Amino acid sequence: MVIFGAAGDLTKRLVVPALYNLALAKLLPEEFAIIGFDRVEISDEQWRNSLAQMTEEFVKAGGDSAALNQDAWKWLAGKMSYMKGDLTDSSAYQQLKTKLDDLDKSNSSGGNYLFYLAVSDRFFGSTIDQLGKACLSCQTEGHWRRVVIEKPFGHDLQSAEDLDQQILRTLQEQQIFRIDHFLGKETVQNIMTFRFANGLFEPLWNRDRIDHVQITVSESVGVEKRGKFYEGTGALRDMIPNHVFQLVAMTAMEAPNSFAADAIRSEKAKVIEAVHVCDSKNNCGAVRAQYKAGEVGGQPVPAYRSEPDVSPDSPIETYVALKLMIDNWRWSGVPFYVRTGKRMARRKTHIAIKFKGVPGTLLREMNLPASAPNWLLLRIQPDEGIALEFGAKIPGPSVRIGDVRMDFKYEDYFGAAPNTGYETLLYDVMVGDATLFQRADNIEAGWSVVQPLLNNWSKSADDLAFYDSGSQGPAEADQLLACDGRAWRPIN
Ligand code: BG6
């Protein structure tokens, strides 16, 4: 495994802790080797030590008071070496090739290479070109070459198409593993299990029984030190065509013919191709907003415009709410309201499905509310679990209906283990299972949906709304649902 960007944040925070967990679970092959590649001048030892420190912090943050498992860490660290190199220098790739050839000689079965591009997206295309030129990406009989990249995949439809074209000049589609880290989350993967391994819900999963769907990805953090990145990105690009659309696709897709990677990815592409933002021409189905100063978790926090590296009159949105419609047989007429924002009241990712009510007559005769709300809640994070809310008779002589809930919590059944979400993804790359990775058409379908909005929003920011940090989001987003006689579930 070659990690480009070996001294960077992604490597330290996620990739190496995930490798450590895989080592702990004995899921890495004995003849495994990691070469870290980066521009900084550090020794093998310094690289390993900095990683040991971060991995230990990760283990502790997961609530495990025990320090790093020394056996697992030593095993992994013994496989690590560092190489200084510049991504734009072709001679560095020749040196890398020599290093890999040497490793192959000492390894009876070796010769499979996994290149992990933990680097800025602007280097994706050129690094892959360089891998091709150095013949590091050429697969020979029985030896694979795979490349992992992680969002952003382009910053609009055109740039995503350009990137794909550039990559596909060197690699075959099966060699590329595009990570959307939401797919590494067990609870996201479980949406498909929940839908397709249980007979109970699927017959209800359509326009006949579902009134609408709400998808919320709220964060309590602000942009922190990522002002520069965020000023060129905004919430729409950062979250919607990728993470949020993964949740939409998992919720709305048809059952695949099999659990094979391409069967699943084709169904996902198909459903996203049918999505459109309601009345996006007039911006009516979309709200964008930016956080003002406020309080989160009892602490005062600054406005977005006062964050480091952010312009004092920035028009960039930190919040988006959309009303999506899906033009297909199953979902015709069922709105999917999605929202994502930073510096909201709470960190919460959930999918809430509201079922249609009962015919009103009977309850009306008894002077009762039209019907008890039936909600199915898929809690992706935190408090991972699934709940079903329905109405029950409140005990007593008169008929009164109370809202009650049946609740499944992952922790109760499966315990909680510190997990980065990258363990499964890395393991799957090694075994060649692309199910949890994005195919080019999935990415382009996502960009196509948001492209009309990107076009409109780039013309003027007159419709930018504002919300207090620590709040539920802007009033304009409440209005989006109020127009349809609906309301967001509170983020609490
Ligand atoms: C990243 C975005 O892809 O996902 C971040 O760039 C966001 O802005 C993050 O905070 C959210 O991921 P998670 O796993 O913390 O919900």
Sum up the structure in keywords.
Dihydrodipicolinate Reductase, domain 2; 22% strand; 17 strands; eleven-stranded mixed beta sheet; binds 6-O-phosphono-beta-D-glucopyranose; Rossmann fold
Polypeptide structure, described:
The structure is a single chain. With 492 residues, this protein is an alpha/beta fold. It has two domains: 2-179, NAD(P)-binding Rossmann-like Domain (Rossmann fold); 185-482, Dihydrodipicolinate Reductase, domain 2 (2-Layer Sandwich). The protein contains 15 helices and 17 strands. Strands 7, 8, 9, 10, 11, 12, 13, 14, 15, 16 and 17 form an eleven-stranded mixed β-sheet that branches. β4 (113-117), α5 (124-133) and β5 form a beta-alpha-beta unit. α1 crosses α2 (44-61). It is globular and about 85 Å long. 40% of the residues are buried. The model has no long low-confidence stretch (mean pLDDT 92). Residues 151, 181, 219, 238 line the site of 6-O-phosphono-beta-D-glucopyranose. 6-O-phosphono-beta-D-glucopyranose is lined by residues 151, 181, 219, 238.
Average pLDDT: 92
Structural class: alpha/beta
Low-confidence regions: none
Helix % is 25-40%
CATH-level-2 architecture of the largest domain: 2-Layer Sandwich
Tally of domains: 2
- What is the terminal separation in angstroms? 42 Å
CATH superfamily of the largest domain: Dihydrodipicolinate Reductase, domain 2
Rg over CA atoms, rounded to whole Å, is 24 Å
* Ions, cofactors and other bound molecules: 6-O-phosphono-beta-D-glucopyranose
Which oligomerization state do the chains in this entry correspond to?
single chain
If helices are DSSP runs of H or I spanning 4 or more residues, what is the number of helices?
Answer: 15
Largest sheet: 11 strands, mixed
Query: Class of the largest domain in CATH?
Result: Alpha Beta
CATH topology type of the largest domain: Dihydrodipicolinate Reductase, domain 2
Outline: globular
State which percent range the strand residues make up: 15-25%
